[in-house]
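Incident review: delayed structure delivery

Summary: a single-chain prediction request sat in the queue longer than the usual turnaround. Root cause was a stuck worker, restarted by the on-call engineer. No data loss occurred. The affected request and its eventual output are reproduced below so the record is complete for anyone auditing the incident later.

Affected input:
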Amino acid sequence: MAKQAGPVYFTGTVGMVCFYKMQGKYYARLKSSLTGRRVKKDPAFRRTMENANILGEASRIASAVYRSVAPEEKNRQLYRTMTGMAIRLLKQNISPIRALAILERHFLPPAPENRAGQLFAIDPADQETGTLCVNEEGVLQPIKVDWPPPDSR
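Output delivered after worker restart:
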């Protein structure tokens, strides 16, 4: 990455060169030939997309638990810790529903009205596979999916 020098600085793309500002300084770099379509379709990026899917699922799990954390305890680091823990669980082939239950037990205090502090009343032993989604009413619910997804080209 090259630094821009001179009294006038530029951001944008001219031909194959991208000019941009990062942390108050101006830089230039060559435009990438990589496209979003290639990353999504090319077999060379299969693991990248698998990791992106895991990150998305982990983020949904962490978000569901984080919403139930007391406002005075919420901070960015806590959410990142939850997401990282969910990623590690999913990479160990633990189902998303079981990962949700584990995060609930780890980060939420037990509530008398909830069995073992679980907000979603999901028994991890009941569901070995599946994923989570938010329905029209804004309630997190499990749905069954095939994982890993079939090879699509």
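Verification: Strands lie at 2-3, 12-14, 17-22, 25-30, 131-134, 140-143.
Action items: add queue-age alerting; document worker restart procedure.
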